[in-house]
Amino acid sequence: MSETELDLEHRTGQIKVHGPEGFEGMRRAGRLAAECLDMLIPHVVPGVLTDRLDTLAREFILDHGALPACLGYRGYTKTLCISPNHIVCHGIPGERVLREGDITNIDVTVVVDGWHGDTSRMFGVGEVAPRAKRLIDVTYEAMERGLAAVKPGARTGDIGHAIQTYVESMRCSVVRDFCGHGLGKVFHDAPNILHFGHRGEGDLLKPGMFFTIEPMVNLGKHPVKLLSDGWTAVTRDKSLSSQCEHSVAVTEDGVEVFTGSPVGLFKPPVASA
Ligand code: MF3
Ligand code: CO
Ligand code: CO
C-alpha cells in the first residue's frame, strides 16, 4: 500500500487498541494466512504458472471458511500478490511462469470472521544465486530487528530505524514508497509503519495495537516505479528486490506475531548454487 493510497481510505487516523477478542480473531486469521503459504511451498517449483498458485491459494482459503482480502480490493482481481526478482510488490498472478533461479515474494491476506491476517515470504525457485540468497537473508533479519523494536512506549520510528540501519549496513536499500499498516477488522488502517526513519519519532506504541511490518529490501538503489497495470511496482535500476511480512500486536511486554508458520516454515529453505 502506498502512503497516498492509504490516505484515501476511510479511517479516523486514530490507532485502535484491541482487547482479548481482537487478539483471538487475529490469531485465527494470522494462522490461516501462514498455513496458506505453508501449503504453497511444494508448488513453488520451476515451470509453475503464477495463476496456478493463485488458484490453489483461493481454493485453500475458501475451503477453510475464510475470504481472500485482495480479491476485489480496489479493483484487484487476484488472491495473491506474486512478485519475482525485480518486482518490489503487488505483482499480479497470471500467465507468467516461474523459472529456475527466480526468487519471489508471495503475499496473502485472509479474512477470518472479519479479522485480517496479512503475511508474505520469499521463495527460491530451484537453486538461486548466492547474492539472491543473501538478499533474502538480509530481508528476514531486517524484519526480526523491526520486531525486536516493538514494545509499549516505543515509537514507530524505532521500528523503521532498526530496519534501515541494519539493511544499509549490509549495503542494501530500503524501499520508501510502501509501508506497513495497521490492520484488524480494517485491511489498511492507521498507523503507517515506515521501514526507515529515526528513533523516538512517529506514533507511540501501546498494548493492543495491531499492524504489519513488511520491509522491501533492494540489492541496488531504493527508487521504484509503477508499471502501467497500475499495481506492479519494480525497482528503477532493475536490481533484485525482496520482502517479508508479519501481522503483529503490541503486548504488555513486547510483541506477538500472529502470522508465524505453525510448522516453522516462515522462512522457507532457499537452495543456493
Ligand atoms: N497484502 C498487501 C499488503 O501487504 C496488500 C495487497 S493489496 C492488493 O498490504 F490489492 F494488491 F492485493
Ligand atoms: Co500488508
Ligand atoms: Co501483505
Quick tags:
5 helices, 27% helix, 273 residues, binds cobalt (II) ion, 4-stranded antiparallel beta sheet, alpha+beta
Task: Produce a short descriptive summary.
The chain is of the alpha+beta class and 273 residues long.
Tell me about this structure.
By secondary structure, the protein is an alpha+beta fold. 27% of the residues lie in helices and 25% in strands. The chain has helices at residues 3-8, 20-40, 50-63, 130-148, 156-169; strands at residues 67-68, 80-84, 87-89, 103-112, 115-124, 127-128, 173-174, 180-182, 189-193, 210-213, 216-218, 224-226, 233-235, 241-243, 246-250, 255-257, 271-272. Strands 1, 2, 4 and 5 form a 4-stranded antiparallel β-sheet that branches. A 3-stranded antiparallel β-sheet has the order 3-13-12, with no helix packed on it. Helix 2 (20-40) packs across helix 3 (50-63) and helix 4 (130-148) runs antiparallel to helix 5. The longest helix is centred in the N-terminal third of the chain and has 21 residues, at 20-40. Bound molecules: 2-amino-4-trifluoromethylsulfanyl-butyric acid (MF3) and cobalt (II) ion (CO) (2 copies). One cobalt (II) ion is lined by residues 118, 181, 212, 214, 245. One cobalt (II) ion (CO) binds next to strand 4 and strand 5.
